[in-house]
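Protein modeling request. Please complete all fields; requests missing the sequence field cannot be processed.
Requester role: graduate student
Desired output: 3D structure, token encoding
Chains: 1
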Amino acid sequence: MTPLADPRSIAPEVVSRDSVWLHHRTLLGTEQQMHDIAAVIAESVAGA
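Delivered output (48 residues):
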């Protein structure tokens, strides 16, 4: 098993570019609402 990289060595720019940060309450709705949110994020990421 490959050890994980030290999180302190990851540049903030890389994390910002390659991550989507959501407040935990965003996904507390129904399952359909969660899928709708995921679809919007996928469309946004694909268009970036």
